[in-house]
Every structure is written in C-alpha cells, then in structure tokens.
C-alpha cells in the first residue's frame, strides 16, 4: 500500500507527549465543560488496521457487453460530444454501469470527468461512484475538483449529517485502496466537513483515520482551530484541540500557535498567551510577525504599552520587521490616551522603517485629534492621506465630519460630507447624527430636521443619539413641548430613551423655568427603569440655586446621596454658586470646609464663586485668605480667578497688587476681560498713571475688545488736550461706532423681539 510520506504518518510514531504543550494542559481546568466533544480519543487502538479491498459486484455477460461497447466508443470517439455518441445507450444505462466503465477508463482522467458529467446530467450517481471519482481526481492531483465533488454532496439542503457522514466515510475508505491510495483525499474530506460546519463529524473522521495509521495534516487541523476560534465556546474547544491532537500525531506549526495565541488573548489570558509565545521558541517553532503582533495588540488594548514596546524591540533583534498592524496597535493606544504627538512620532518612525501607514492609521489619528478639538491638525492629516494616495473610507470622513461639527464649523462639515457622497461612499446613521447634532448645537433646527428626513428617506433608522441631539436642540431653543413630542415618537418607534435624552429635556425644562415639570420627568425616568444620574440631579439643583431655593437644592443633594449617586465637583460648585448669589457666604465657606474634610478636591471655579462675592462686598481681606487657601491646596488659579482679583483690588484701590497680579497672569498666558481692562485703566487714570493707562487701552483695542463710553471719553479728552486731533477724531469715530451705533442696533433688535412676543400673545 502506497503512503505519502509528507501526509500519511503512523500514529505510533507520535504517541509521546510534546513538552511544549504544558500551557495547554494548564488551561484544561477552566475548559472542562468542553470535554464531551472529544471523548473517545483515549480509547483509540494503537494497532493500525489495513484498508479494505475493493470488491464490486460482477457484471453479467449482457452488462459486460454494454460496458465494453460504451468504453470502446468513448475512447475511440473522445473528440465528439458524449451526448450524441451515447444517445443510443441511455435507455439501457444503470448506475452499476458507471462504476464498471470507470474501471476501464480510470487512467484517462479527462475522459473520467466528461463521462461522469454525462451521467450526472441524466441521474444522480451513487455515493460509491462519487467517492471513486473523488479518489481519481485526488490521485490525478486535481485537488480542487476533489474538493468540489465532496463539497457538492455536503452542501445539499436537509442533509442528515450523522447518517451521511457514516455512509460517505465508509464509501471513501472502501474505495481508497484500489482507486487512489492518496491520503490527501481524507484531508480534503476533513476540510469540507470543517467548512460546512460539521465539526463533530470532522472529529470522528480524525479518530477513524488514526485506526488506519493516517493523521490529518497540520494545515487542515489549523482550519479546524481557526473555525472553532470564531466564538467564545469555540475558543475553549480550540485550546482543547490544541492540547489533545499532538498526542494523536499532529505536529503544530507557527500558524497553529498563532491561532491559539489569538484564542487565548480573546479569553483575556494575556500572560498565558505571552508564555505560549516563549514556549514556541523552546519547541523549535519560530514565531513570526503575526505571533508578536497579536500579543502586542492585546498589550496595547489592556494599557500595557511598555510590555508592547519591549516585544517590538525583541522582534527587531530577531530580524522581524514590525508590520502595519503592530504600528496600528501602538498608534491606537496613544490616541485613546490623548498622546497624539507621540502617536504621530510613531507614524514617522514607521515610515522611516519603510512601512507605509494605511487608512486605519490615518483614521485613528484623525479621530484622535478631532476628539481633542484639534480639527485643523486632523484636516492636515486628511490632506496628507490624499497626497499619499491613501484612500479615506466612510469612517475617516465621518470622524472628520464629527470633528468639524463639534467645533461648530458646519460649512466645512458640509463640504466634507458632499465630497464623501461624490466619491460614492454611503453615509450611515453615525454620519448623519454627527451633522444633525452639529446643526442642533448652533440652533439651526430646520436644517437638522431636514437631515433627519433625508436619512429616513435613505432607509437609515435614526437611533437614540439622533433623537437625543434633536431633543437637546429643541430644548435649547425653548421648544420643550416639541422635544417631548419627539420623545413620544421615539418610544413609538421602539427606541428606549437613554439617560442623555431625558437629561436634555430636564435641562430644557429647567432653563425655561419649568422646574416642577422637570421634577415630574425625573420621576417618569425612574418608572421607565432609568435612574437619574449626577447630571440630572445637578441640573435640577442648579435651577433651584439660581432661584434662591437652597433648601430644595439641599434636599435633592440628600436624595442623590441616599440613592448612591455620587456628586461631582460640578454638583458642589452649583451649590456654592447658590449660596453665594443668595448672600449666604458663611454657608459657602462651610461647604468648602466640608468638601476638603471629605477629600473632595475643589477646583478654581469653587473658590472663584466665594472670591467674587467677597470682592463685591469690598472685603479684600477675606478674598485674599480664600485665594491663599486655594493655592495651599494646590488648586491653580485660572483666567477667571485673576480677573476677579484684579477687579476687586481695583475697586479697593490696591493698584500695586493689581500690577503684580496682571504681570503674573500675563506670564501664565491669561488675559484680561473687557471689564477688567476698564477697571485697571480707571484705576491707573485716577492715580495719574496716564502712560500705563494708555498702554492698557491700546492693548485692549489691539485685542478687539470694546471699551465702555466712560473709557473712550477719558482718552478723547486726553488726546484733545495733547493737541493730537487725528487720534481724537479716530477715537470719536470708534465711540460712535461701538457705543452709539452698536447700542442702537441692539435696542432695535430688543424692540423687534418685544413686538413679536406681543403679536404672538395676541
């Protein structure tokens, strides 16, 4: 009996256990529920049996004559179509004749296929005949045809897998010895079983062949591993196969290890996956780029960048060049953590190594910069893609559109959207929702609803985020009733509003003064199974604080704490603002002290509320104490802090302190507001520091800030007294434009709004 030395191996040669599989053994305790699929392997006999001899039914004299005539005819007239030369034999032709004729022509492979096709057009061949042709195709090295013949049988609908497997495998084994003796035929059969999802039958075939001294090839077993690893239960089975099959004669290769490393990674066993990588080398199996990149990707995903970088270094030492997938993983990690400059540095290094960044790398960077609000940088990268002829996909366009929308640059977002459509890329729900949200944020609700209708017309279904954006936009325009109607429509469409949807409407109700209705909506949220979060409570508390209802705000805080909802520093800032505008500064200071005692770190805004109120009361001693306390807690003052302090000290005529604070804030990159400029200029003017006052006034004008009429009058008089008529006239023009014309326009707009409101009431 012939044997293919590459494929056909004696089971006895591989009984010894492979030490490289100790990891897989260690996985068995948590994979024990998958044991039933492989039971029976331990009972496989170590004594191989021979393949059976083929002994078909003998033809009668009459059948033998017909077979002889048909065989002779198709051999002599092989260039003619069989349908014409065999027409006279069709009525007498039976299934048995096919096998007998194949015996006569089996050495002429083309003729075998032609004759088999002729028979198939007239009647379904027997399973034995199909297996014979499969054997002939395999021994003729036409493995593609052998695969197709087996696959056609197993792809039939309503096939009884168990019965069909028994019949097919028996017929294939029965015809093997005399019709082919090429073990690749079983390899092909195994592959088809895996491809058609008959994994249990594939396992049975593997075990059956061991009894005949044959072992399925490692490439076919890899196909099984790959198929199993497509879902969670399969991952468990894949590891078990990886552990069991070497005992049966399979010698795993690099591809096998790559599949199982990925499976172990998907199960969250990253340490074990790395250990398996080390075991590969100890077993003499060389890891490739895929082996390393799989683990590198997982290290990046789990936030362990240093371990990933160490593996990259190890790869390079071994002469393995990191591929684009490796770099993608590192770039994605850096972008997710906001380290965009470092990510770009990795991309530059990638290019110096001759690895061309692909669409994924650029899209990751573009999305990262957009999320940080650095849309110009993202757009630069987008142009760089086009220069390098790297084609953006709809994800790239959507990321850029979303970035422009969040930055309020709707014209640029529209241009990118139109370019996307012109390129034949189909926008999805995410693309449309980004545009809708952008238009809602700038108050263009008509355009937002037009886009909503457009996406529905395209067959795209608006999601919860889409409706939330529309509801938020309506609420910000005071159209809370319409937003509520939208909420009802959303529910009718089978979509469950999320916490963001409800919070948008709660915010709208609070801003329109309907706090009681907002409270009622909070109760409806709970009935719907959505519990109010920190934003819900903070929004309601803010509304009560602004109306001076501090007792109600405090009750909400208590309710929030009772329900296990943790307040943030924003929540406490809302309370602090309420205390301050209600004049309850002592209560505000007690709140600050309580926050510090509870380990809740205030921010600059917390201190600013208190400092502002003490400045208004002209109590600069208390203001200074709060400022010092802020610095001692390590809270850095912000732009607002300096402006509050400067205006307070100007009011108290502490101009030396003002000069010191102004110099300090400028050194930190902070800027005075228009009202602060006015306060400081007036302070210098009263101290007859005209040079300093004029320098600040000119600086204010250069920044495009508009001074009040009193400030202009000071410098008009000053310029006139100095005899500088040109400067005087320029200032007069400015004061007319900024203080008279602009105010007149604002008054006209206000009067128009009042008239419109009266007409609507009528």
Automatic annotation (TrEMBL):
Q: Which UniProt keywords apply?
A: Repeat
Pfam families membership: PPR, PPR_1, PPR_2
Where the PPR repeats fall, as residue ranges, is 253-287, 288-322, 323-357, 358-392, 393-427, 428-462, 463-497, 498-532, 533-567, 568-602, 603-637, 638-672, 673-707
The record's GO molecular-function terms, alphabetically, read: mRNA binding
Domain of life of the organism encoding this protein: Eukaryota
According to its UniProt record, which protein family does this protein belong to? Answer: Belongs to the PPR family. P subfamily.
The protein, known as: Pentatricopeptide repeat-containing protein
Q: Which organism is it from?
A: Rhamnella rubrinervis
